[in-house]
Structure formats: structure tokens, C-alpha cells
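Sample 1 of the test manifest.
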Amino acid sequence: MLIFERSRPGRRNAAQAPNGQARFPHPNLPPQAGEGANESLRELYFNHAAAVSGIPTALLRKDQPLLPEASEMDVVRHYTGLSQKNFSIDTHFYPLGSCTMKYNPRACNSLAMLPQFLARHPLAPEHTGQGVLACLHDLQEILKDVTGMAGVSLMPMAGAQGEFAGIAMIHAYHDARGDTARTEIIVPDAAHGTNPATAVMCGYTVREIPTNANGDVDLDALRAAVGPQTAGLMLTNPSTLGVFEKQIQAIQKIIHDAGGLLYYDGANLNAILGKVKPGDMGFDVIHMNLHKTFSTPHGGGGPGAGAVGVAQRLLPFLPLPVVARQNATYRCLTEQDLPQSIGHLSAFTGNIGVLLRAYVYARMLGAEGMHRVAEFATLNANYLMAELQKAGFTVAFPQRRASHEFIVSIKPLKDATGISAMDVAKRLLDKGYHPPTTYFPMLVPECLLIEPTETESKETLDGFVAAMKEIWDEAHTTPELVKGAPHTMPVRRLDDVKAARELDLTWKPATSTRAV
Amino acid sequence: MPFIPHTEPDIAAMLASIGAKNIDALFDEIPAALRTGKLNAVPEGMNEMQVTRLMQERAAQDVAMLNFIGAGAYEHHIPAAVWQIATRGEFYSAYTPYQAEASQGTLQLLYEYQTMIASLTGMDVSNASMYDGASGLAEAILMAVRAHKSSRRVLLPTTVSPLYRSVVHCIVKLQNIELVEIPFDTAAGTIDLKALEQHTGSDIAALVIPQPNFFGALEDVDALTAWAHAQGALAIALVNPLTLAVLKAPGNWAGKGADIAVGDGQPLGSPLSSGGPYFGFMCCKQALVRQMPGRIIGRTVDMDGKQGFTLTLQAREQHIRRAKATSNICSNQGLMVTAATIHMALLGVDGLRRVATASHANTQALAKLASAVSGVKLSFSSTNFHEVVLQLPKPSAAVLASMAEQGVLGGFDLQPHYPQLGNAILVCATETKTNEDLQRYVDALRHALS
């Protein structure tokens, strides 16, 4: 049932909105309309036509928006009930490749939501925000250290906005040198879709280069691709194929020799946190997905945070504001401090509440904890890969170490039984596991990209392997059961074609004719 | 080990299965010269008790004051149920709902959100949110240029927030889009229609129409929308969703309505939080839906014909279309939208109207009280909603600093952004302010000017 179907005309929550007790004198009302005014005057105040009598009628709303009229308890039950139709990290194992669905510590949430943090207005003077600014400044310093970069801005509100900021800085760098002939960004074919989309948003054309049989960048193709038109290369390392790019030093040299800059997509930073720094690999600019590596919640799709880090030569171009510490006081740097900045990406100061969660997480881990993140993420991934191989599954790069994730190809199973990666994914739901990422990267047919993260125990991984074995057996004995999965969810497989062809994006009351 | 459950026997058994002698061996593909040494700037780890103490000390440094600043972020009461439900683990720690069958809670909620926000704005369709209002406006401009096809010129009035305009410049400038500023009428505080008319007959992709505008003033949205359409340009409405409980919805502007409506959803349940996270909303006419960036939820049926919800029109998005996507945007601000949906459901039509109306009434009352202070007057003659510009007889920065010393955040200093306005400040009094609060404002202002 939709919330609108629970709605009853005239039902309202008297406790949730300003009431008629006239604490808010309308200037057009006689003075006695204040405290102690009689009922009719109170009603007059909330007679909207009267309260907004100074506003020209032509600018006022005449129809009633379609919002529910429901009691507080209706609303609480409805949305509590909806929450129970979700998988989440708090309820299920989520081995979702390239998404780093690790446990979101509760302390990060409760401490980021301390009332003083929530109450502060973004345009309040900086002296009223020394606490929050100190946290942001410390977080910048921590991120600089773990990534080996010279400067960090926390402002991008998502990974994709971090990518935008990074490529915009590369653009600004070349422009500042008068090097305006560089029109191309190189992207490996295994890259996330955000990489080419970002390059286009920054006014570049995209040149894609292939991957070799080992899962590494094809160096010959890269050499052939670079030239005076090369603005930079966007690289994810470890790549989305779940392997560490061993030739990174050679790649770095090819790009820099051609006058381009090297961009690090931090989607897989969890795999190397505390083990190798992007700065040491020669990257000029990086973004970090704090909602992955620093365990801020995914929230059903966001908000994320896509902090960017830069090498020395890109420092002048960082997005604003950057938090500086001067004379024991924290302040936000402005255009006066960084006149060559690419500018502002949000109206205020990014997703601060997310940044506070990342900060609490970083402080709880400390330096030792940072090293352990990559160690145990990698241990879990390699263990799961080994166990699934023993169970008969085919991994894409058996000759390689897994990073924090790896690829299983369902193609042999599909050839034998007709069961696809999608079928396996949907059947996993019935067994209480969120499926791995499916059909990405597109280079490996029928792929499952599996990332267990460091916060899962051996028992959980063993349970997942057992579920995969069961599905393997079902594929051979009762394939229809697998093809019809899921059977235990609130809905079965949905008709995506109908969803796209017969667009139904908003609810309409039964009595009204469809407007669209 | 924080958040790592492995016991020593677990580690030994796992390494044996892998065939590695120790954990370090798992990193043997990383060139030795690149391996990280000590992390010098990362302090030692803290336990929960220690970090709680640290954060409480930090929070205590953030000084709470009686706030009269709006300027794009508004202090409203948020019902207790909103964040208690939004931070349930099933919402808080869920991933993007790509696996629809395991995400019906988030998906249905987003569909309900799309319905509510599309209805508030009077538009046909909505996406599942953008990062914030400012970046949402930038995306709306890019969308309008894609939809218009022939022109890359967009008129961006200076009555749009300077903070928003700066973000728009940052995001669209690399795509060769020409942003043309339209000045405001200095008496009315609204878009200068004469200046706008100089562009009559030229090829324009879109006109951005803020309502209320940055000064809190109400623009003649019908005339502006009609003018844009007469030029063959799209009308982009930049609106505060709370005010739409009372003000004419963009979908009804000039009859046939604006083409795209965007804004910041912060007034619907996002705490001020020093600036974020908030969320941007984006709604449009049905005909433009395939040009819209961001995630969109549709209602459909499952194999058994049962109602269900799923992400749809994904062929617009970067994970499918890559370099040809409508935007590089991937995430939305899901959790903030979760809060906003619960917030709107709790308040309902009546509640939102009461909040909007009380905010309007409070601001009118404050304007009246403040302009009675000697030397203070209202900068503009036009009708305002819940923000107003005050003209001060002394330098605005100094007056605001003096008010802050008295524990009152007296407003947003317009001087650096609009030097032509002199000592002008932008003031907001939402429903959270009592008579006593308004009096305290006036007392602080009077003292600051004395």
C-alpha cells in the first residue's frame, strides 16, 4: 500500500506543525491576536488567505498538492514497514564488487548527529564552527597521509563529483600553462561508466584503450594512444577486474612523458589502504569514495562524499573551500586565497555530515587500523576466491592475486545448464545474500564481481560459499527453480520493459484522469 | 582490531586455503618500491569512549546562536520520527536499489517522494534527487541546453543566489555554455524586466526564474515564463519546496508552466549541519524526461502481476551509456530524500502550509519591527516571502559582528556579493521564532547600531 492510499481527508498531525495558538502575530492582525487571543482570531491567523494577504493572488497556489493526510502513527508504521522490505548491511551480507559495503559503525552516526553539529547554519561566522572545522581539517590531513597527496579538498558531494573536480583541475592546469591543445582523456575499457561521462562533462573527448589477457592495461595500445592531445589518463587501481595494475610505474612514465596527468579513481582504495599510496604511484589527482573506504553509509543511494587529493602542481586549483589552520584558528580558504581554484561544487560546504562520519571512523581506526583495512579486505577476497574455485566456479584471473575483489564468470555454468549470472544473483536473494555486482565489468561474460570487505567473518564467507554450491547443484537438478528466483522476496522479478515503456513515475488518485 | 572479526585460527585457516604463508604475501604483486611505510599524520586509534569524548568536545566548540540567517538553508522544526526512521539500519545501510526485489522499501519510498515533489512543483515527473540545489540548477541548465538543441545561451538573473551562480559557473563552463547575467531592479529587488527585454528575439536556451528569489522577493513568474516561452527558451524554475505549499506551483506558471523545476530540498527535513548533506530536487515536463539526469523510479509489475518498483530509464545513465550519458551523476542523496519523504508525510498539506505561512508571517513581523529601528529600512518595495533585505545605516559586517557578540546571527551580509546595495543584509525568520526571539533580534540590532 502506498502512503497516499492510507490518507484520509482532514487527518493531520497537530503536534508536528505550528498550531493555532498565535505565537506568531501576523502584522495585518490587530494587536490582541497575540497571546490569549480568542479562537476565531487564531483561526484567522491560519486562514491562509488572510495570513498571506500581502501576496498578490496571482502568485498564490490554488490547487492542493498531493501530500498524504495521515497520523503520526500511520506514517511511522508505513515507513518502518517499508524499511523491512530492504536488504541492508545491518541485515545481510553484501558482497557487492566495487561498492565496498563494509559495516557502518553506529558511533559514526551518533557522533556526527550531535545537536551542535546539526544546528549550525552554514553561513554562521567561522568562530562559531571551530569544532566542526577542526574535524574537517584533521580529516584532510589524514587523507593526505594515506593517499600520499600534497593537498585535499573534502568538497565534492559524491564520487562522480570528485571525478568532475579532478578532471576540471587537470583542465585548469593545462589552461594555466597555455597548453590548450590537449583535448583527450584516455580511459581503459574496464573503467566505471562515470569516468568517460565525467571526461565529457569537462569538455574532453574520450579515448578508450584495451586490457590485456592478464587484466592489466595494454601498454602498446597506451603508447599508441598518447600524444600532444592527451590531457590525462583515468585509472582505477586495483582495477575493476580485481587485480593490481603491476605496470603502474611504466604507465605513469608514458603519460607524464606525453605531458598528460594521471588521475586515480579511488573506487577501490579500500584494497590498498595503508599498503600503497596513490601519490607514490605517481598519480597527480585522486578522488576517494568516503562512503566506501571510510565506511559512511550508502543510505539507499547516497549521500556520498568524494574528497579529492592532489599533487603539488595541482594545489592552486583545488575546489573551495579548503579548511586551513592559521594561528590555532580554523578557517575556510576562499577565492582570495586560491584565485585559480576551479570554484565551488556545492552551495555551501559539501556533505559535512558524511565527512564527520568518515572522520570518526578514521579516528577509531587510527594508523594501525588503516593498514589492517587492506590486509583483511584482501585476505577475505582471496579466501573467498579460493573457496569458490574449489567449489567448481571459474574465476576470471586465476593466475593473479585477488585485490579486495575478484570476478567469477558464470559462463561455463550457463553453457552447461542455461543458468545465467542474473539467475544466480536472484537465487542468492532467496538464500539471504545480497548478490555481487553483475555484468560489470563488461569485459568478462556472465560475471559476478565479488567484494566481501574486511568486516565480514570467515563464517559469513563460508555460508556464502555454501549458498553458491547449493545454487550450482540446483542449476543442474532444478534449473527452473533458479530461473524463477527470487521466491521469498516481497516481489518476484520485475518487468523492466514495462517500467520503461509505460512510464509510471508518480501515483495518481483513482478519480483523476491521467495527466501524462 | 576495530571492525575486523578475524581470530588467529580464522586467519591461519584462510591463509592455508589460499596457499599463502602470511597476509603480506597477498600483496606480492605490488612493486616493493611502492609499498607504504608508516602513516605519520594518522593518530593512534581511539575506542568508542575516547572518540565520543573527542567529538563531544568538538561539538561543544560550535556555538549555538539565535539564528536569523536563511540564504538557501533554513531552520525548521524536524519531527522526531523523521530521523529516527531514516537512520534505521535498513534505510541507512542499504545500497543503491539496483537489486529491485531486495530494495522494495527504498524504491517505494522514492516513488512516493517523486509523487510528492512532482505534485508540490506541479510538474509531471521527478527524479530521485540530485546532490544539492546549486548543482541541481547546473544540471538543469545542461539539460535545457540538450533539450533546446540550437542555443547554448542561458539567462541567469542576479536575483539567483550568488552561491548558486558560482556553482553553476564551475559545473557548466567547460561545456561552452554562455551564461548571461540579468540585473535586478534596484527598487523592487526583482528581475529587471527592461534589461530582460533587450534579449527579446535572440536565440536563448533557457531562462532561470527564482521564486522566491535570493532576496526573498516574489518574481512575476507568469510574465517571466511567458517571456521565455515566447523566445523559444525553456523556463527553469528555481524554487523553495516549502513555499510551494502556498505559492503557485511552477507547473502552473503562465498557464502551461515552467519546463524544469529544481531547488534544494533542505527545508524538508534536512538539519542545517553547517551546509550538508542536503538534497537537490529536479522535476520536469513529461516530454523532457529522457533528458533528465539522475536516477528515476518507476512502478511496474513482477512475474506474477504484482505491483513493484524499479529503477527505470537507466539507458540515460553513465553506467549504461558511459560517454553519452545525460550526466556523470551516479549517486543521489537517498537518505536525505528518505527523511524528506517522511517529513512531508508527517506534515501533510496542512502542516507544510502552516510552516510556510508562519515563516512568512514571522518575517513580515520582523521586517516591521526592524524597520522601526532608527535608520533601518527595507531595501525593496516588492512582496517578500520569508526573507527580507534590510538597509542599515552602518557597515553591515560590523553590525552583524556586534549582533553575533550578543548571541544573535542577524542575517547574511549582502555587501560582498551586491556592493551596489550598500549596507544590506538578508534576514529570515522561520516558524521556529517566537515573539521573544523577534524582540531579541530587534534589541540586538538596536544595540549594534547605537
